Amino acid sequence: MSAPVPDDDLRAGRAIGEAEWAALRRESLAGLPPDLDPADPDVLLGYQRRLLETTAAHPVVVVPKSRRIGATWGIGADAALTAGAARDAGGMDVLYIGYNLDMAREFIDVCALWAVAFSQAAGAVGEFLFADVNPADPADTKAIQAFRIRFASGFEVVALSSRPRSLRGRQGCVIVDEAAFHDDLDGLLKAAFALLIWGGRVLVISSHNGESNPFNRLVQDIRAGRRPYALVEVDFDRALADGLYRRVCLRTGRAWSPEAEAAWRAEIIAIYGDGADEELFCIPAEGSGVWLLPAVVEACMRRDVPVLRWEMPAAFAFRPEPEREALAAAWCESVIGPHLDRLDPRRPSFFGQDFGRVADLTVIWPLQRVAGLYRDTPFVVELRNIPFAQQKQILFWVVDRLPCFCGGALDAGGNGAAQAEYAAQRYGEHVIAQVKFSIDWYREAMPRLKDTLESRGMALPAHPDVLGDFKLIRMIDGIARVPRTRTVEKGDGAAAGKTKRRHGDAAIAAALAHFASLMPVIAYAYTPASMTIAPNGETVPFGGAFPTLWARDVSDLEAGDGGRSLW
């Protein structure tokens, strides 16, 4: 158990230096009883206990917090006690709503550990489908994967990965975790507050996600007295003062000391950099909120997905055409060619392309739908300062070699319109989507991509620039879009000391590829025609020999392809 540090000492946040923090921690331990071992913290840290005490006394509690301070551990204990108690002892169902399915499973696992620790009679962790019914349109019913533990008390802890409308038909204690990252926090809270009428409770907990985010507005309303809710703020320094680093040392086997804690604190702040105020010290950043948690993007990243880059000087555009074509063809054969082998010849292929010529780069993103509708990315192509003609040449070279090619989506705005039209002429206007970015397109396409990424249903390259492009996407007026802000490339260009700008290009190409993979595909099967004898005595199909393209398709189908889309 740690001695408290006065609140006034914690207000400076990241401005407190390493030496000053070490001195502060030594002073805070000066009055401890000699028989109290500071290296033996209680099961629940001070801020976790205060959180439980506050939820027991107030029907609605809002908690702005630092990242990864173990809040789930504390509220999991409260959930197990609440669901395990009899009705006359305050027992009720606990409904946990997290940002994604991984959070839901993690919370249920924590509750299961607490149930064992408290010796509560509970069933095994179960997985089920939760029917999210739309009262306005019963046909619009979605089955949401969820987890639960049932207790002998008759109550249960249910963990969901989204915000179901069916919450309105339930009763109990609602926990909204990472509230700032839910798409419709206002609507979710409106449904949750209805449970208060019959004695329910609501706990809203989150790190910040921008100054204009609904979660921050809720916090400001409480501070201003406009909402009669309890507020418990736990920033990084408060968590440290209550023993967070002691717990880290206990778990990792390190020796605790004020100097070691101060060094660790400085290291964590340095890792977050400019984001430390928001991520660690509960100070919301200015501007709109991010669209996806970086952890969601990183969970989809794979090191075996390469980013293939080609950049040429400006003078290359004015070299003789045969020379440009030969260089582009050689680059495709030597750089892209080896990675085409990982494509499954039996699976449908798609692609997306975000176009750029001078200020921005072009990104070509192939996809294959494989088992379980997982979207596999074999590689990503990035072209910077490549002439229009060679961009078209490279695109066609790649798409011509995609097995079972079923559709593509291209940026058709500005300079990209010509290449999108060329692609539609070559592969068919029903196979190529010429996308002119609009609010309606973002509103339709981005939530679907987000859902796929949150369920880890698509492979992304493990590359810092790809991560940076996804982090650039912001919620602007409720729509996930790329703002006008540009970022600086961290990859090869940065290593060479060159400043190269990006504008979310890889993220948009991924969104276009995902959009293409959802387009309707028209497939057909092959039935051979009757065989006839030609005048020269040869056996040929009825009606004459097939054209070359058809013969290629026939061989694919006979090899077990099962169907191709119509061009």
Number of strands: 25
Radius of gyration: 29 Å
CATH classification class of the largest domain:
Alpha Beta
Q: What does the overall shape look like? A: globular
User: Would you tell me which CATH topology of the largest domain applies?
Assistant: Rossmann fold
Task: Summarize the structure in words.
This protein has 567 residues and is of the alpha/beta class. It folds into 3 domains: 37-281, P-loop containing nucleotide triphosphate hydrolases (Rossmann fold); 294-517, Nucleotidyltransferase, domain 5; 523-565, no CATH class. 37% of the residues lie in helices and 19% in strands. The strands form 7 sheets. It has an 8-stranded mixed beta sheet with strand order 3-4-5-2-6-7-1-8, with helices on both faces. Strands 10, 11, 12, 13, 14, 15 and 16 form a 7-stranded mixed beta sheet that branches. Helix 3 (71-84) packs across helix 4 (101-117), helix 12 (321-336) packs parallel to helix 13 and helix 16 packs across helix 18 (505-517). The longest helix has 17 residues, at 101-117. The radius of gyration is 29 Å and the shape is globular. The model is unreliable at 1-11, 31-41 and 542-567 (pLDDT under 50).
Could you provide a short overview of the structure?
37% of the residues lie in helices and 19% in strands. It is of the alpha/beta class. The longest helix is centred in the N-terminal third of the chain and has 17 residues, at 101-117.
Helix and strand topology:
Elements: H1 18-28, H2 46-57, E1 60-64, H3 71-84, E2 94-97, H4 101-117, E3 126-133, E4 141-150, E5 156-160, E6 173-177, H5 185-193, E7 201-206, H6 214-223, E8 230-231, H7 236-241, H8 244-252, H9 258-272, H10 276-281, H11 294-299, E9 301-302, E10 307-311, H12 321-336, E11 349-354, E12 362-369, E13 375-376, E14 380-384, H13 388-400, E15 405-411, H14 416-427, E16 432-435, H15 439-454, E17 460-461, H16 464-472, E18 474-476, E19 479-481, E20 487-488, H17 492-495, E21 501-502, H18 505-517, E22 523-524, E23 531-533, E24 539-541, H19 548-558, E25 564-565
Parallel strand pairs: 1-7, 1-8, 2-5, 2-6, 6-7, 9-17, 10-14, 11-15, 15-16
Antiparallel strand pairs: 3-4, 4-5, 11-12, 12-13, 12-14, 18-19, 20-21, 22-25, 23-24
Helix pairs in contact: 1-9, 2-3, 3-4, 12-13, 15-18, 16-18
